[in-house]
Design a protein that fits this description.
Layout lengths: L5 E6 L2 H14 L6 H4 E5 L5 H9 L8 E6 L10 H9 L5 E8 L2 E6 L2 E6 L7 H7 L4 E5 L8 H11 L6 H11 L3 H14 L8 H7 L8 H9 L3 H12 L4 H24 L3 H8 L6 H11 L1 H20 L4 H16 L2
Helix pairs in contact: 6-7, 6-8, 7-9, 10-11, 11-16, 12-13, 12-14, 12-15, 15-16
Length: about 350
């Protein structure tokens, strides 16, 4: 177990974040009782007093108290920064605090070429600067892997799940999932069950279980949407919802629209779209289609669509909103914008 007491998880890899939290809970030992000493708060819906109460409360019986604060910097304006950091400084020694901040890495063109940088929690951000100056703190980067790293990620994930996958099979799976770790993890689990954990998954296994000849591909559905083929996209969404959780499909929507925003940024800066596309996991035969879609709709509308998807995520966790219905409405509303 790390000596840190405050843990900032920075990134957009929901699968990786969930694994980190589960592993950390295990590291707290058998004396830790989640039913008594685990609190989860959302910075979007809670207030400062509730956060302060949660982290200052002593654990019941023995062991540690764990507080997980999602959207940890939401609604914190400049006037509250001092109060917030003072609260963190007064953390009881029995409290472990995990701060979750959804952040994304974008490609920035420099004199040395393209490099990945964090959008929000940059080295000059007040929270990053404060944490770096304190003892017993850590920043854990859990961003989605670069597309070029996905083959290795898949090999490691198969091993973590107790099985094996051949390099050629990992490469084929990457071709279908890009760098969406949540979907890739589910496909790996399905493949390992298919081989009953008795042998390594082969490329042929991936072709039979994951290829377009099998289940409807979520990325194919998104391609139809970007091509302005709204009715086709809607039909594929219905079939996807028969076999997959809407939360997983939403993650794919967010991932694809994030890619489109990166392409739009590259177009505006005069960057090499083909090079950027390779780095973000867009297939070579899709580059021109995505470029055309981005130019047709523009950055302003793309950002509005992206914001709407993030709102769906919040609503699914904080209200009775039907995520499946929201996704279908999103296709109907945005499909018109992508029509040629």
């Amino acid at each position: 177990m790390t000596e840190a007491q405050i843990h900032l998880l920075r990134g957009d890899d929901a699968h990786g974040i969930a694994l980190w939290i589960n592993k950390f809970i295990i590291s707290l030992g058998e004396s830790f009782d989640p039913s008594m000493n685990l609190s989860r708060l959302d910075g979007n819906t809670t207030n400062f007093d509730n956060i302060q109460l949660a982290i200052s409360t002593l654990p019941f019986f023995t062991g540690d108290r764990l507080v997980i604060l999602e959207n940890a910097i939401e609604k914190i304006d400049k006037a509250r920064i001092d109060s917030y950091t003072a609260m963190l400084s007064a953390l009881p020694p029995t409290t472990q605090l995990v701060l979750l901040v959804e952040d994304r890495q974008k490609w920035r063109k420099t004199a040395q070429g393209w490099e990945r940088v964090w959008e929000t929690l940059t080295p000059t951000h007040w929270l990053v600067k404060w944490l770096c100056a304190q003892p017993k703190t850590e920043i854990v980067d859990l961003g989605l892997p670069d597309a070029r790293q996905m083959d290795a990620w898949i090999l490691n994930e198969a091993k973590r799940q107790g099985g094996m996958i051949e390099p050629a099979a990992a490469n084929e799976l990457t071709r279908h999932t890009a760098n969406d770790t949540s979907i890739a993890s589910q496909e790996i689990a399905k493949l390992l069950m298919y081989v009953n954990f008795q042998r390594a998954v082969t490329r042929q296994d991936v072709l039979e279980l994951v290829s377009d000849e099998g289940a409807v591909d979520v990325f194919e559905m998104l391609d139809r949407l970007l091509e302005g083929k709204t009715s086709e996209a809607q039909g594929k969404l219905h079939r996807l919802l028969d076999n997959a959780l809407p939360e997983v499909i939403l993650g794919s929507f967010v991932h694809r629209f994030r890619q489109l925003i990166l392409i739009s940024e590259a177009l505006e800066s005069g960057g090499d779209i083909a090079d950027l596309a390779r780095k973000t996991g867009i297939f070579a035969n899709k580059i021109e289609n995505y470029r055309a879609a981005v130019q047709r709709i523009g950055m302003t509308k793309l950002e509005a669509m992206y914001k709407k998807l993030l709102e769906f995520d919040v609503q699914s966790k904080t209200s009775a909103a039907d995520l499946s219905t929201n996704l279908e409405l999103f296709i109907l509303e945005t499909g018109i914008c992508f029509e040629k």
